[in-house]
Amino acid sequence: MDTEYFVNMIEKDLDSILNLEILKDEEFTRKLFKQKSGDKAHFYKNVIKQSEIQPDYWGRALMFIFRFGRYIHYHCESEFWDKVYKTANREIVEGKLNCSLPRFVDIGFGTKIYHPYNIVINSKANLGQKCTLRHSITIGNKGDNSFPSPSIGDNVNIGSTASIFGDISIGSNSFVGGGAVVTKSFPENSKLVGNPAKNLNEAVVEKI
Fold it and tell me: Which of 69, 124, 148, 201 is 20 to 30 Å apart from 30, CA to CA?
C-alpha cells in the first residue's frame, strides 16, 4: 500500500476519519495497526477524541497526527503505520503548518490548539491537561535536548508569539500573555506578561 494515500486522507478527509464508527472498535483498530496482543490502548480515546475537540480544521489535523504518532510509537509494532505518521508529519505538520511537535512531547488530554502555525515545542517539554495554545509559540529550544525543557501545569493559557525557555515550571491555572518571554519559574495562578515576563498577580510592596 502507498502511504501517500493515507496522508491525503488525513489532509482532505479528516472529518470523515474522525466520524468513522469502526475506529471506536478496539478489536478492529488492534488488528488494523497490528497492535500487540494484550495491549489495551484505546485508539478512539487516544487519537480520535483528542482531535475532535480542536477548534479548527488544522488544529484537528495537527492533534490527529501528533496523537496518531504517539499511539503508533507506544502501542504498536507497525513499520507501515509508522511511515504513514512520519510522512504526514513531514508534509502537513512541518510542510504546511511549519510546526515542530515531536510525538515524544507530553501533552495532557483536553489541550486545545488555536490557529496552529509556527509552533515549536521541544520533545522534552511537558504540558498539563486542558491547556490552550495559540500560533507562533515556542516552548523549549527546537531540537536542543541537552537540557530539560519547561514543564507547564494544567489549564494554562498561552498567548500567541509567547516564548518559554529553560528548566522552569509554570503552575496550573496560569496565563501567559501574547509576546511574553518566560525564563524563570512561576507558581499557580500567575498572570505573566512582558519580556522578561513578570507576574502581575504578585503583590508589589514598596520599601519606605
Answer: 124
For residue 66, give Cα distances in angstroms to 83, 101, 146.
Answer: 14, 7, 23
Q: What was the pLDDT predicted at 189?
A: 97
Summarize pLDDT for 115-148 with one digit per residue, the tens: 999 999 999 999 999 999 999 999 998 766 667 7
Under CATH, which number does the domain 99-198 receive? 2.160.10.10
Alpha helices, H only, the chain: 3-12, 14-18, 26-32, 43, 49-52, 57-75, 79-88
Cell 503505520 belongs to 81
Cα–Cα distance measured from residue 114 to residue 117, given in angstroms and rounded to the nearest whole number: 9
Would you state the pLDDT for residue 205?
Answer: 46
Report which secondary-structure segment, H or E, holds 182: strand 181-182
Strands 198-199 and 191-193: antiparallel
**Model-level pTM?**
0.91
Task: Please state the domain extents for the chain.
Answer: 1-97, 99-198
d(CA 194, CA 23): 45
